Amino acid sequence: MSDPILRLEGVSKTFGGLKALTDVSFGLNEGEVVGLIGPNGAGKTTLVNVVTGNLRRSSGRIMFEGEDVGLQKPYQAARRGLARTFQIVQPFPAMTVLENVTAGALFGGGAASVGDARDKARQSLEFVGLAPLADRPAANLALAARKRLELAKSLAMNPKVLMLDEVNAGLNSSEIDGALDLIRKIADSGVTVLIIEHLMKVVLSLSKRLLVLHHGQLIADGPSREIVSDERVIEAYLGQKFAARLKEMHHG
Amino acid sequence: MKPLPLYASLVVGLAILAAAPLYGDNYVVRTAAIVAMYGALATSWNFIGGFTGYPSFSTAAFFGLGAYVGALCQRSGVPMVVAWAIASVAVAAFAALLGGILLRLRGHYFAIGSIAVVELCRLIVSSWSSLTGGGDGLNLPLVQGTPEDLMRFFLMVMLVILAASLLVTILVDRSRLGFGLRCIHQNEDAAAMVGVNTTAYKVAAYTLSAVFCAAAGATYASWTGYIDPTDSFQIVLTVKVVVMALLGGAGTILGPAIGAAAFVLLEEVFWANFIDWNRAILGLVIVVLIFFLPGGLLSLRRRLMPGGAA
What we know:
The structure holds two protein chains of two kinds. Chain A is an alpha/beta fold. Chain A folds into two domains: 155 residues, 3-Layer(aba) Sandwich (Rossmann fold), CATH 3.40.50; 69 residues. In chain A, 42% of the residues lie in helices and 24% in strands. In chain A, the strands form two sheets. Chain A has a six-stranded mixed beta sheet, sandwiched between helices. In chain A, β7, α6 and β8 form a beta-alpha-beta unit. Chain A starts with 5 loop residues before the first strand and ends with a helix. The model of chain A has no long low-confidence stretch (mean pLDDT 87). Chain B is mainly α. Chain B has a two-stranded antiparallel ribbon. The mean pLDDT of chain B is 89. The interface between A and B is medium-sized, with 27 and 19 residues. Chain A: It comes from Ancylobacter radicis. Chain A: This is ABC transporter ATP-binding protein. Chain A: Keywords: ATP-binding, Nucleotide-binding, Transport.
């Protein structure tokens, strides 16, 4: 197999005495769809922040396409093709939907001019199904549409790796199904996708491989089916007591 | 605004100011020159305060430093116009360096920091007597000519500075830079995430906000022939310029210049008619305008003509 497109080697992040990430190592292969799960506070968002330069890693190496990008700033990550969405959506509220996506194409996607960026933005909006709302102010969109806007903005940046931080949080189940189809479509276009979720259902339906983060440590990395029956993972999610009870039920 | 009406109003506005000597006496010409000067200052502020949304109060620092650099150059024998150019470039460089530090602050903290720059510049200039003459101020070589000729000349210079600042505003508004600055205004973190080099863009906006202020300051020094620290680094000037830009419409192309014209004219009217109460009346007018016209005078156009949205 060729080298992973994104590789973390012993990455740690501390905030004063608090260890948010401890010695995390894994690689994402080109075109792969990987799920990153873990209970609240496990360090999932911190991990994304460290990769995109929103936070500086305390130690370890972050390799993107064979280059150490541990010291990059967020705008450099965006230009390199490391795109992300935020758990709490971050639109430019007074701009129209089209202008929002144009910003992604112009700065992150390296479009030659504002006009080119606008064309590219229309394609992205078409792709995510927001084209009819192109001229609406971003602030007027409902949550599901705002999440799609985030996706369109990221796609306009021509990402190589796309990290989706809880894109499904707050959506109802039919909206989630729509979002899943969209993520599948994005993955099919060849983009490497890291899905950060705590909804198991979502992750399992998309990714064959799972990473599990618990108390800032990567406690499992492997095929989804094996991971979900891994004792440590169940413990992390349910606590020791319930994990033990679950085990009894299986054996009993 | 669509390009055509924009250019038309721009040309008409500049022409009305430029024609002042044809229809008015020396007082009118002087007022036109003051309008042009404040128009340039408010248009400059618009780069950082309007487009980028960083409430800068550094205008007086750039104006005063421009005045001093220009004055010192002229006193050491540099021709006047060259002195103005040197002042503009030097202050732009100063703003770029300062911006790299100051623009790490956001919101109120940036506002306070930018005010401190004005006070610091004033203190340094008044203490550095060997170079700046301290509190005694500096005399500049007198420009030869009749008072009428001089007034006309300085009106034209101020108009050139105003026109240049407006031209750069139009260029920035259409470019990648302008787009990026508006993104920063709306949501700076999101701007960085889509790939805007926010630090570089903010420094560029701050530098642009300095260069025309410095040119105006240097010109003003040559015009009055004498400068001192208190007059050159006035907090009142800094605040006035911000009010002008807000009055006309911050973040628009022509708004700040229109606001400057409205403000200067109001000020003149109240000075002339209500010598005791002029400040109070002006203050009231400002409060009323900002309460009822938060988008500035330019937003009237949108309200009055539903089809004429920008």
